[in-house]
Design goal:
Blueprint lengths: L3 E2 H12 L4 E3 L6 E4 L9 E5 L14 E4 L8 E4 L3 H13 L11 E2 L4 E2 L4 E2 L4 E2 L3 E2 L4 E2 L4 E2 L3 E3 L4 E2 L4 E4 L4 E3 L5 E3 L5 E4 L4 E2 L4 E3 L6 E4 L4 E2 L4 E2 L4 E2 L4 E2 L4 E2 L4 E2 L4 E2 L4 E2 L4 E2 L4 E2 L4 E2 L8 E4 L4 E5 L16
Helix pairs in contact: 1-2
């Protein structure tokens, strides 16, 4: 676990993030590690906001990034958005690991691999394009005709470019499969968790994952799906073939979006919901089976367990 002092934290805030701050009770003699208020430890680097309802007495010898001053012996760094600053400081500190290509990885001779790419143990890489600063953890499979754009992270046991299954009956009742010959494009700055499958497009289609999208563990994405930028998918989401997901949509755990269904930008879909019809209006929240709109203008209040929708 990385340890850091007050000077290192302030250097990142001042030089890298370039935000205003105020230090209360500065203590340059302690080193701290990343910490959460849900499990308080001494010598931690925390963030707290004005709505914090816990006991500060449980936190000791620590640095707290916060948006309010409070009576404490801990060092406070007062900023406007403590959660955002905490995340950015930790990303700056923890995101600089030296890339390697493990000897056990199997890589197609015609794969195009950029600079600073990490390919973990037992990965299988087909005839694909992997741009700069991509990180693949162990046992990731990237098949032919896939493009992974820069700064994308894919966790263990995920498969990009798997073949989907589309078929019809012939006159004798036999199943005839449609060839799955399309590709996958994962735009820059995406994060895919473990056991994620992204199926290739059918024929001349591509399955497209928009930039900055986060896909949590166990999610399955069908052929020809189009996902906009900055979408969040929680665990075990299922997107059927040719679904179209608008930008900055939040898809709750185990929800389903049916084939050829469109959700507009800034939609929230609740956990376990089944969206079987397209909707047109942005900033709606859907729940239930089948899914129904329960909230409009969802950016006005922060939903429970979901980041407040972004609106300028």
């Amino acid at each position: 676990m990385i340890e850091l002092g007050l000077e290192q934290v302030l250097l990142i805030i001042e030089k890298e993030l370039k935000v205003d701050y105020k230090v209360v009770n500065p203590n340059n003699k302690i080193n701290v590690i990343p910490a959460s208020i849900k499990k308080c430890i001494p010598f931690g680097l925390y963030y707290l906001t004005k709505d914090f309802l816990g006991e500060l007495s449980k936190i000791s010898n620590s640095i707290i990034i916060t948006d309010f001053e409070c009576p404490t012996e801990n060092t406070l760094i007062v900023v406007d958005n403590p959660q955002l600053i905490h995340y950015k400081v930790l990303n700056d500190l923890l995101g600089n690991k030296a890339p390697t290509i493990h000897l056990s990885a199997i890589i197609h001779t015609e794969a195009k691999i950029g600079k600073n790419v990490n390919i973990g143990p037992y990965c299988v890489i087909g005839k694909c394009v992997i741009e700069n600063n991509v990180q693949l953890q162990n046992h990731v499979v990237v098949k032919d005709d896939v493009v992974l754009k820069r700064n994308t992270y894919i966790d263990s046991h995920s498969c990009i470019g798997a073949s989907g299954i589309a078929w019809i009956w012939d006159d004798n009742g036999n199943r005839v499969l449609q060839p799955q010959t399309g590709g996958v494009i994962i735009e820059e700055d995406c994060y895919l968790g473990t056991d994620v499958t992204v199926v290739r497009g059918s024929l001349s289609e591509d399955t497209i994952i928009g930039r900055g999208t986060v896909i949590a563990h166990g999610t399955k994405i069908g052929h020809g799906v189009k996902v906009g930028a900055f979408v969040h998918m929680a665990n075990n989401v299922s997107l059927a073939g040719n679904a179209n997901i608008g930008e900055r949509t939040f898809l709750g755990s185990a929800c389903v979006v049916s084939s050829n269904v469109n959700t507009p930008n800034n939609t929230i879909v609740g956990a376990g919901a089944v969206v079987n019809k397209s909707i047109d209006e942005e900033y709606c929240t859907l729940v239930g089976v089948p899914a129904k709109v329960i909230t409009k203008n969802n950016y006005l209040n922060k939903p429970k367990g979901v980041p407040k929708p972004f609106k300028k």
